[in-house]
Design goal:
It is a multi-pass membrane protein. It is found in: Cell membrane. This is MFS transporter. The protein has 420 residues and is mainly alpha-helical. The protein has a single domain, classed as Growth Hormone, Chain: A, CATH 1.20.1250. Helices cover 78% and strands 0% of the residues. It is built from 16 helices and no strands.
């Protein structure tokens, strides 16, 4: 980071958004942990747990078009308060029921509301961040989210023993109050946003529009594609990781928990490091290096048989994955014009959730016929193959361009940054 960029402080709006992510992700982490424990105790089997994960992922895919249109056509300060009230209300209703099917259905509604709120937050973050600080802003939000998900499951397990599922869900409802509160920190919409001009054509937005935006920028499309393969590979290995630790190493449940903590801690460190280093650097090389590091770590984990080395490689892979997330977010913020950022963010979230579901399903089939180490080899090899393919395509493609960010408050435009 250059000295000039280092002296620029992050706007208060960015800090407020990061705080909202920390609180809400902590609530999500404790709630899903409590629901999984409750479903396990009720002997719902693998189908019940699968239904929980489906309820968390599918709504983001189905509502991508609506989420993109809302985020691009309506200011965040107007959208977030009713969404926050809805989130609090749904969580409160969940605390009043014990029916498994109803809990899953309400969780899907909750996930749908969050799917709409997510691109609104992303666009608000980009608009609040001066161009040289996009990477630092994205890193701060990523670190806050990872910290929330790191603390949430532990707190959820403790609260489950202390107050039960109803109490945990009420705590989760309270954490969603951060969504309407953060809206108070965002700027009021301009007068032009309050009155529609009938002579002006309607702005195009939605899922397909978001996909076109992602595809038309070749560098961004490559980063997104590698990120989808990365998500798929990590979901596959996440499913079989417990078998690698418990069966191949004969380790205890505590060791598995510590390994998960090492991954999360690595993500936080990697995100923070990337945020500082990417301020005025291009994103093409960091994206390739971090994805390559994850792939190499997966292959090395499969090859070696040392528990201490497993911890080191897991932490390094987590750091590389956290850094890649910031690189990808920075590429999105630098490349896409503000008018289409909401649709692009919603489409990207739908693609990521699709990759997550595909990874979970794929792991179920592959993990049933091969050993965990073989799964790691396949996942790491697939990621490196995707990276090599996009690199070859990059060498034959035209030079990418960077869109100019036109939102108010930016102290520099993206065109002043290195071309990717």
């Amino acid at each position: 980071m250059t000295s000039a960029a280092a002296r620029i402080r992050l706007p208060g709006q960015v800090t407020a958004i990061a705080a909202a992510f920390l609180v809400s992700c902590l609530g999500d982490g404790l709630a899903i942990t409590a629901l999984m424990l409750d479903f396990h105790d009720r002997a719902t089997g693998g189908l019940g747990i699968a239904a929980l994960f489906g309820a968390m992922s599918v709504p983001a895919i189905l509502l991508a078009g609506l989420a993109g249109r809302i985020s691009d056509r309506h200011p965040a300060r107007r959208v977030l308060p009713p969404l926050g009230v809805g989130l609090v209300g749904v969580c409160a209703v969940m605390s009043l029921t014990d029916a498994v099917a109803l809990l899953v259905g309400l969780l899907a509604v909750l996930s749908g509301l969050m799917a709409i709120a997510a691109p609104v937050f992303v666009k608000a973050l980009f608009q609040a961040s001066p161009a040289p600080l996009i990477s630092r802003a994205g890193a701060l939000v990523s670190m806050a989210s990872n910290l929330g998900f790191l603390i949430g499951p532990a707190v959820g397990a403790l609260l489950m023993d202390a107050v039960g599922l109803r109490g945990v869900l009420l705590v989760d409802a309270a954490t969603y109050l951060a969504v309407p509160l953060v809206a108070l920190c965002l700027p009021a919409p301009p007068e032009s946003a309050t009155t529609a001009d009938p002579a002006r054509p309607a702005q195009q937005s939605g899922f397909l529009v978001g996909l076109r935006i992602l595809v038309q920028h070749l560098h961004l499309a490559r980063v997104v594609l590698v990120g989808l393969v990365l998500t798929f590979a990590l979901q596959v290995t996440n499913v079989v990781e417990i078998y690698l630790v418990r069966d191949s190493y004969g380790a205890t449940a505590t060791v598995f928990g510590l390994l998960t903590t090492a991954w999360a801690a690595g993500q936080i460190i990697g995100a923070g490091t990337a945020g500082r280093l990417l301020s005025e650097r291009a994103t093409a090389r960091p994206a390739a290096l971090t994805a390559c590091a994850v792939g190499a770590a997966l292959l090395t984990i499969a090859a070696l048989n040392s528990l201490p080395v497993l911890f080191v490689l897991t932490a390094l892979a987590g750091a590389a994955n956290g850094a890649f997330g910031v690189v990808r977010q920075t590429a999105l913020g630098r490349t896409i014009d503000s008018a289409g950022q909401g649709s692009a963010a919603a489409a990207h979230a739908a693609l990521l959730n699709s990759a997550t579901i595909a990874g979970l399903v794929g792991a179920g089939f592959v993990g049933a016929v091969v050993q965990p180490r073989t799964v790691y080899v396949l996942a790491g090899g697939l990621l490196l193959l995707a990276l090599a393919t996009t690199h070859v395509y990059r060498r034959t493609g035209p030079a990418p361009t960077t869109a100019t960010r036109t939102q108010p408050g930016a102290v520099a435009t993206a065109t002043a940054l290195p071309a990717d």
